[in-house]
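lol ok so funny story. i was supposed to be doing the assay writeup but got distracted and ended up predicting the structure for this chain instead. priorities right. anyway since i did it might as well share w the group, maybe its usefull for someone
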Amino acid sequence: MRPSAVVVAVQAAWAVLKQNAVRSLLTLAVCSLGTAGVIVAGVMGQAQLAEMEVKMQMLGGGLIVVSPNKVPAYPGRARQLEHFISLIPEDGAALQAAVPQLQRVVPVTARTATLRVEQTTSRMRLIGTSPDYFTLRGFQLAKGRFFTPEDVRQRVIVLGDGVARELFPYGVAVGDVAQLNGQPYEVLGLLKRQGVNFAGEDEDHQAFIPIDTYQTRLANRPWLNFLYLQVAPKADSSPVVAAVNSVLRARHGRFQGQVDDIVVRDLADLSAQQSGLQTTALWAVSATSVLLLTVGVIGIATLMLLVVRQRRAEIGLRRALGATPWDICLQFFLEGTSLASLGVAGGLVLGLLVALVVVNFSALPISVDWQLPALAAAVSLGASAAACLLPAISAARLEPAAALRQ
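and the output, tada:
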């Protein structure tokens, strides 16, 4: 086909677009959404994976969490407690001695408390723990310092960024005093902003005090909410989980067949589960994009079949003037692909705009993978070209005399 014929085919595509304006625009819109959806799904998938990785890093690498198990319900007897009361700091010391693969054992106890400075109060999560907690979690200081083993049973506190902003709207200084349970606590340090962790907890709306201070001055009991166990870098966590469970069952006198009074969770398994859920969500978004793309392709094919039917007289006249079936087929094929190219181009622009907005307004380390738009455009154009073949072949097979009579 000569270059001038290609120009004529493109001009004919514009004529088709004007002649069937509403149907053409709807088809282009659906095709554009399908192309844009593929790009947005890829960028959102990268953003979710980056967010999960950041949150897992905030929780620490190779982390095992031990917590009290739920008390099973017994028929005919009202449940008095929701959880077993069994986890104590001595369990952590026993695990450190019995399981050599453990690099750190950090006791954690927590409750909701109110912190007050003059007439300003903040309702936050109060955590009693050891100094190793900050190292294990990778927390960084904005001001001051963390508490140390020398601060045992002292009234000292480290504030999360959100708590500090509520209590000290004009800025907090090391040495300021906040009231907790009617007692003054010296502010040792202020954490940098952390955001929401992997467990869905607001890390900035927390305050930290030494665990001995928590147990003697606030709770007056030794029970723990968690034990955080950090596995050595080269150790396999699966046998460590089994060893931890075995040691604690023996310490707590659990007989064979009795339900465990503690739960041991490997966060690597939890990460895999979260990754699986996110993969499922991405598949759902991708499937929706493919469905939109399919609807757009079907719309293009339907529109071109309608155009062929409406232009049967034109096809017959061209054949009578010497056009070959190949010329007719190529003409309508180029008309259809030109129409599809407009939809794909619109989808690329829309998808890239959304992707750039996500990248610019996200604090996560993500970027636009330029191979993804190229892949989306190639898939969309390939599917659209395949959809245009049937109408083009149908037009080429028309007999000139029959077409002219109609």
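The beta strands are 63-68, 102-117, 120-129, 141-144, 156-159, 177-180, 183-191, 206-210, 226-231, 262-266. DSSP finds twelve helices and ten strands in the chain.
back to the writeup now i swear
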